[in-house]
Amino acid sequence: MRISTGVKRSTQTALDFPIRRKLLMGTMLAGMMALTMRALYLQVLDKEFLQDKGDLQHVGIVDVPAYRGQIKDRNGEPLAISTPVQSIWLNTRQLKDDEREKLAQMAKILGMSDKDLQAFLKKEAGKRFVYVKRQINPDLAEKVKALEITGVYFEKAFKRYYPAGATAGHLLGFTNIDDIGQEGMEHGYNHILRGKPGKKRVIKDGKGHIIKDVENIEEAIPGQDLMLTIDERIQYLAYRELQAAVLKHKAHSASLVVLDAQNGDVLASVSQPAFNPNNRKELRSDRYRNRAMVDSFEPGSTVKPFVVAAALDGGYVDPNVLIETHGVYHVGRNVVKDIHNYGTMDLTLVLQKSSNIAVTKLAMTMPPEYFWGVYSNLGFGSSAGVGFPGEASGSLLDYQGWHEFDQAILSFGYGVSTSILQLARAYTAIADDGIVHSVSLLKRDEDPDARRVFKPETAQRVRSMMEHVISKEGTAYQARVEGYRVAGKTGTVKKTSATGGYTQDKYLSVFVGMAPASNPRFVIAIVVDEPTTGQYYGGLVAAPAFSKVMAGILRIYGVEPDGLDTMPLLLTRQ
């Protein structure tokens, strides 16, 4: 039985073989016939098309651009959107002499003179693919399309538009004519915003130019929207006041950052000089650099509150300590000076008058490793990590390489560099009762990287001292905001020279502050580079801009006043 069954199967397989071979041959013949028919169509039935485009070579597959995701502020207001546009191209070999009048009408629609168009056509004569105009409004394209000009073709595309204009230009950046991010958030998050291109089959000429669409293969997937922490209202307010400060003091440049003191969200980030991303004629590298994110500088006296906090928190100084200063203090062969001889000072007066000598003495009480650790924990020397292209890390020399005087100059803000964003981040440790926050440009539910740097009582004590900086006897009286308690610190920093050392006539004016001081909601950091009208102290140049921006923010957010005694008009009426 087994033998007969095996023979039967073998015989059956042998008999089936001719049949399967015929089926296979039939399939192959059908495929060859299809290819032959396609060739016949292209070479005979579509012969006129091929002759028109003598260099037609192949059918290819190309990407179809996806709709680029929007960039929105924290309230859903659009900051960057993509609008449908059309590009017009032509095959100069197909243009007909008897349609010259139509070409003149097209030129008029596109804002060109007939003379310019004819010069363009003469220059590009013989080309089968050349753009006439890219990224035009669809309504203009429809007017051109209605002329039905032989050899004129249309290509769908997208154009990026920025409703906030120059107000958010440095932050958003811009895309190129192919809608690909080139700077700012557009570049940093291009992979998210751009989406996934689709695919279509097209006919290309010998130079790779698309001559004709054949069919869609895969639909494009739109890019994702990007929700920022930025509040467009605050962004505009900060932009306006920073611009006014630069114009008033005829400064070289400036930058300003506003943070939510309780979670590290970046509510505004502006830089001057500004540029409008909608106007591509202004796209010069010296104008579109985001100074708030990528520039670093020595922060000067704005670090002094951290020195006081570190000394208190580590138990290296008593809260009621009195420090002797006599205008000059020697550290080895080096000399530390104050503007005036302040005599004996308590810690509040140290910050109020911004004494270099006093903070140097405080710094020298602390072990280098501990002192360095506080600065490091505040974020100095490390990028703020907001995902912005080219973001500055600043610098902080490792304590193992310090000399005695290095610790001294670090105490009054030299020998360390930071961006204005990093400096604002460090101040959240004073504003939020000892918690330093990570900063973010993308909206989030909470700060996952918040960490404690100082004890709550230490931060509160130092914040109270910083309120005296805003008093008439302090260095930043012009930073006050009526109705609110304000805490802050000034910095006036000599700029480094290209040949080494420091200049004697070029300064950075810096101010960082918070309000309401009883329970800070916002931190604002400002740096103005090279004011040239005579005033250069941080309290006279940067502090007034802080006051105007902070007053506007508190009003917009409806924050309850905590300093009614600073409202003379209201008190007079009462």
Automatic annotation (TrEMBL):
It comes from Methylomonas rapida. Gene3D superfamilies: 1.10.150.770, 3.30.450.330, DD-peptidase/beta-lactamase superfamily (3.40.710.10), Penicillin-binding protein 2a (Domain 2) (3.90.1310.10). It catalyses: Preferential cleavage: (Ac)2-L-Lys-D-Ala-|-D-Ala. Also transpeptidation of peptidyl-alanyl moieties that are N-acyl substituents of D-alanine. This is Peptidoglycan D,D-transpeptidase FtsI. The active site is at S301 (acyl-ester intermediate). Residues 255-550 form the Penicillin-binding protein transpeptidase domain. It is a single-pass membrane protein. Keywords: Carboxypeptidase, Cell cycle, Cell division, Cell inner membrane, Cell membrane, Cell shape, Cell wall biogenesis/degradation, Hydrolase, Membrane, Peptidoglycan synthesis, Protease, Septation, Transmembrane, Transmembrane helix.
